[in-house]
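Action item from last meeting closed. Structure (367 res):
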């Protein structure tokens, strides 16, 4: 009995020891897990700190860009102001000089008349003599001085000649200093899908489903022409600098516009998004989307734009879209380093059962 009791006691002790070891192991695992979580937390905190710094630095860069742009505008306005003031000063000096010369000429006549009066008064004070009577005729002839009235000079100063609609005038002058200036673009007919029709000026495109497709051998197709999507490229290529253009989409229920690499496929693509070198916005079913990868991004716009502004900044590797009427930003893409030229890209889309027959046009604003 005593032996069994000792065995049971030992067993209970061993079991308690095993349980204690298991709890210790669980505690150790729990501590390791929490330490791992702490490490991840520290790492995430550090990443958030770095992200905050990068965002802050990026906004500082953008702020400097904005200040530089406004400094250019201020410089332009200062130069225009100085030009206008210099023009006024020159005209003032010219007119004052003419009036001063007129005043001088009148003054000379006045002095001649006063001199003649003085001469005649002197003769009057002389005693009568045969000599005076002899010289009087000659004297009167010599003192016959008349005031010759000079022709009038226009001295009226009208502000309209110098001021007028000064803001409108400066606005028109500012066109020459715009950078980027508004690009005058056209479509490249060689790239247009066979069902697309371009205007004579190559600035307007429509989809015509009744056109007969050419019966051509795929091997003989023009490699620049789109043969699957209803697209057309611009005729101008961009590799550097900043460029801005506008596309009229008024009256359309579907469209797609943006920028494309020169080497995008002309046939069917597995994804017509940024992954294949397309940075575009599109309108479908009443909403605008940015054609991002792996899925489109909905663009918030309270009203559907009638004109889209596209700003390609090759130096910053960005392309941005705007409501061109209000200049409200719609969406921006980071395009990264592109080693081939970039082209404007247009897709008027099909007629949408007669609801999308309006043309898609390149808008050329004039100031």
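Sequence:
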């Amino acid at each position: 009995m005593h032996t069994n009791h000792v065995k049971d006691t030992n067993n209970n002790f061993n079991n308690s020891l095993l349980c204690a070891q298991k709890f210790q192991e669980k505690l150790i695992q729990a501590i390791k897990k929490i330490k791992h979580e702490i490490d991840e937390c520290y790492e995430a905190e550090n990443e958030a700190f770095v992200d905050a710094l990068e965002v802050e630095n990026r906004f500082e860069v953008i702020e400097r860009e904005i200040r530089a742009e406004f400094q250019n505008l201020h410089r332009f306005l200062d130069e225009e102001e100085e030009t206008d003031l210099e023009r006024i000063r020159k005209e003032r000096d010219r007119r004052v000089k003419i009036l001063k010369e007129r005043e001088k000429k009148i003054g000379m006549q006045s002095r001649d008349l006063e001199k003649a009066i003085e001469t005649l008064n002197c003769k009057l004070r002389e005693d009568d003599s045969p000599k005076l009577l002899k010289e009087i005729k000659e004297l009167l002839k010599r003192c016959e001085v008349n005031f010759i009235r000079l022709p009038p000079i226009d001295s009226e100063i009208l502000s309209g000649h110098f001021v007028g609609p000064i803001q409108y005038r400066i606005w028109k002058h500012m066109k020459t200093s715009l950078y980027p200036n508004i690009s005058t673009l056209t479509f490249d007919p060689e790239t247009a899908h066979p069902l697309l029709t371009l205007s004579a000026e190559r600035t307007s495109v429509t989809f015509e489903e009744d056109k007969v497709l050419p019966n051509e051998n795929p091997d003989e197709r023009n490699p620049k022409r789109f043969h699957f999507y209803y697209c057309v490229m611009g005729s101008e290529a961009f590799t550097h600098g900043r460029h801005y253009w506008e596309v009229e989409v008024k009256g359309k229920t579907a469209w797609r516009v943006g920028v494309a690499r020169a080497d995008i496929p002309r046939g069917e693509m597995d994804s017509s998004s940024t992954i294949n070198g397309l940075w575009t916005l599109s309108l479908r079913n009443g909403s605008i989307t940015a054609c991002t990868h792996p899925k489109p991004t909905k663009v918030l716009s309270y009203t559907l734009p009638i004109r889209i502004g596209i700003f390609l900044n090759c130096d910053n590797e960005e392309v941005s879209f705007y409501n061109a009427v209000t200049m409200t930003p719609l969406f921006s893409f980071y395009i990264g380093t592109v080693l081939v030229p970039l082209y404007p890209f247009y897709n008027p889309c099909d007629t949408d059962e007669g609801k999308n027959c309006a043309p898609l046009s390149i808008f050329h604003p004039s100031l």
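Note appended to the action item: The CA atoms of residues 254 and 283 lie 5 Å apart.
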